[in-house]
């Protein structure tokens, strides 16, 4: 791999070594006085949805008001992000962001919002391994099988993801780059419909987050091929990493974070940041995360540390999107 190594190495450590930064306190208000809506850009049943619902359950107790998950799929999560960016900045409409949003800032030329100026970071929520899975009907059992098929039948092997510009899409592109293969990308509006077609034999592979794949793996509806992380996952310890198979540079975990509309009062942002740090230390939440393949940050984090991660990711994915000429469908 001959590009962005420094950035890749830095980002692979997210959640454990980002520096702490102070968050100035403001006089507390009565926030929250009513239910809070957590908006996500994907369909129910996918990996992001699962994380949102775990988080909402524990934040409801911490905040003393219900946290409601609202699914707004469309335009690879841009519909949801724009909705929150245009919402009243009072802390009652929040956005569960993913790595995909940092990709879209470069990939989509005519977005009606700017991730860097219309949304503000609240805090990092979790990281999660990515995984390559295939249907039980395919002959694919190892990474080498994918490479052999893709080289024998260029642009014929299909790789599904949860949307154009999603982490799964980017990892599919990077896989092709690092293996010298050519595959056909198939974008879905979330991972759940992608799994329907994978199980039905209409696509060959799916690149995505482990929590979305885990129920299907456990039900033996799909077959895991490799984990795209530095280490094997405790959830599927018998599945090798991609690097174990000889393909290097594909060990980027996916991250999830909380954002709010720009202009959110500092004391509200601090209340939210304090609350997510508190629930992330809850052993019951950590157990729920582990069971579904998520990893909570190793230490409390601030809006500044999460904002630094977002800015670094924008820089990284700008290079990759341009190199691979990735454009919206």
TrEMBL record:
This is MFS transporter. Belongs to the UPF0065 (bug) family. The keyword Glycoprotein does not apply. It comes from Bordetella genomosp. 8. Keywords: Signal. InterPro entries: BUG, Bug_dom1. Residues 1-24 form the signal peptide. It comes from the Bacteria. SUPFAM superfamilies: Periplasmic binding protein-like II.
């Amino acid at each position: 791999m001959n590009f962005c190594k420094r950035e890749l190495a830095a980002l692979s450590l997210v959640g454990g070594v980002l520096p702490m930064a102070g968050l100035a306190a403001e006089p507390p208000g009565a926030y929250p006085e009513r239910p809070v809506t957590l908006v996500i850009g994907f369909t129910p049943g996918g990996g992001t949805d699962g994380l949102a619902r775990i988080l909402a359950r524990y934040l409801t107790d911490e905040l003393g008001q219900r946290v409601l998950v609202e699914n707004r799929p469309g335009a690879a999560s841009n519909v949801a992000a724009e909705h929150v960016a245009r919402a009243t900045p009072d802390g009652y409409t929040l956005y569960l962001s993913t790595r995909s949003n940092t990709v879209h800032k470069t990939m989509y030329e005519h977005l009606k919002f700017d991730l860097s100026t219309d949304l503000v970071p609240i805090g990092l929520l979790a990281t999660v391994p990515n995984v390559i899975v295939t249907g039980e009907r395919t002959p694919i059992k190892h990474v080498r099988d994918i490479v052999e098929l893709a080289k024998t039948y260029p642009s014929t092997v299909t790789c599904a993801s949860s949307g154009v510009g999603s982490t799964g899409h980017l990892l599919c592109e990077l896989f092709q780059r690092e293996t010298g293969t050519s595959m056909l990308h198939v974008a879905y509006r979330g991972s759940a419909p992608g799994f329907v077609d994978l199980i039905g034999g209409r696509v060959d592979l799916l690149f995505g987050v482990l929590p979305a794949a885990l129920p299907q793996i456990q039900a033996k509806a799909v077959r895991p091929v490799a984990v795209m992380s530095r280490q094997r996952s405790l959830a599927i310890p018998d599945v090798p990493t991609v690097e174990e198979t000889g393909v290097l540079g594909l060990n980027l975990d996916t991250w999830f974070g909380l954002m709010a509309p720009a202009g959110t009062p500092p004391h509200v942002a601090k209340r939210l940041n304090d609350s997510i740090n508190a629930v992330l230390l809850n052993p019951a939440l950590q157990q729920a995360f582990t069971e579904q393949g998520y990893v909570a940050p190793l230490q409390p984090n601030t809006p500044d540390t999460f904002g630094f991660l977002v800015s670094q990711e924008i820089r990284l994915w700008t290079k990759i999107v341009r190199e691979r000429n990735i454009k919206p469908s």
